[in-house]
Amino acid sequence: MSSKILYFKIVFRVLCLLATSFGMAYAILHKHTDYAIYTGIIIIAQVAGLINFLNRTNKKIAAFFEAVENDDSTIHYPLYIKNNSLKELHKGLNRVNNLIQNIKIEHETQEKYYQAILEDAAIGILTIDKEGHIYTANKSARTILGRSPLTHIRQLQHINKSLHYLLTVHKPFDPKLFQYTNEREIIKLSVKATPLILNKKELLLVLIQNINAEIEQNEIDSWNSVFSVLTHEIMNTIAPITSLAETLVEKTNTLINARENNNIDPNTIKSISKGLDVIKENSYNLVDFVDSYRALTKIPNPDKKMLSVSILFEKIKILCSQEKGFENTSFKTESDNNLEVFADEKQLLQVLINLVKNALQAIDGSTNGIIGLSGKRTGSGNIILQVTDNGPGIPTTLIEQIFIPFFTTKDEGTGIGLSLSKHIMKLHGGSIKVSSIPEKETVFTLSFPGYEHF
One Pfam annotation, family name (predicted)? Predict the structure, then answer.
């Protein structure tokens, strides 16, 4: 509407100017000098008016676009003016300004929405330019890499040199595995890089994922499959041996007692009987051995209940009171007031007792042995239980292997205690971690989801 009014205003002024020009030409042709001068003055005034009108309009439009370019949303043109053409122009410019601001607000809202999703994404995300500057580093990336803030790839040199080199080259690559060690554990990463062009600028989009949990679960599943096959095959082999040994022992004992065959040396029969007894005894021992490993694959689903942590710690002290070295060890327990954990009591006691027994064995013979049991709630609501001892610690070369089934550093032991503990924690939706400073302390940390999630 405003454009039509402007159009008619300009056309009207041009027509008036043409009419006056024709009048001036007529006066000049008929030698009416006075009229020619008057019409000339009128033409000059009309041209000046037209130029002024166009300049005012152009200045308002130019000012409007300059405000848009400078992201100035405060610009507003008055509507209470007598000039109808300018009034319509003001309405149009105000309307366009409102549309632009609404679109801007919508885009800002969407940008905040996507930024919130990006920041809280479980996978780490980085965007890097050719100079190595990091434009984006979400919360997961900062947590996984243990660096905050993340501003340049130089910060990754101390994490993994191979990863730093690949990102320095600034070339895309398919998923690759990297790892680094922090003060608590070894972190295994899956990293992928893809090219990205943003505002005509070449960037590298890097996706980082901590795959410790996936690897651990795959290891557990693999070991469970191995255990199932081994126990099945071993039990199938032992069963007929045990049965046959029992039968032969019974028959031999019958021959000895009845002395039905005097041609057979009784000593020989006794030797046979003793040998069969050994076979039977070892068969039973082997069955017991297999049953101990079978426990790893037959852990029932946890029957979870709310458990008082302080009461749990008291039970642990009582249940471990008969263990060797208990009397010479100082126990320290502490936990947050009224702290509770949502867990299966029998299974959790099994884990804690195993850890305390290991700690007692580690500090055996020490005159100042200390074992600590502590519990607390983290800022995120998780429950943390820790078993600490001041024994000789675990060598760095072995700390990665202690949760592997069958692995043990003890002269006597099956090597399933920590594997079983790890499996139980997985069933609870939690985790078990270990950190050790040789000759100072070893800390096993059990992490449970906060009960408010259940």
Answer: HATPase_c
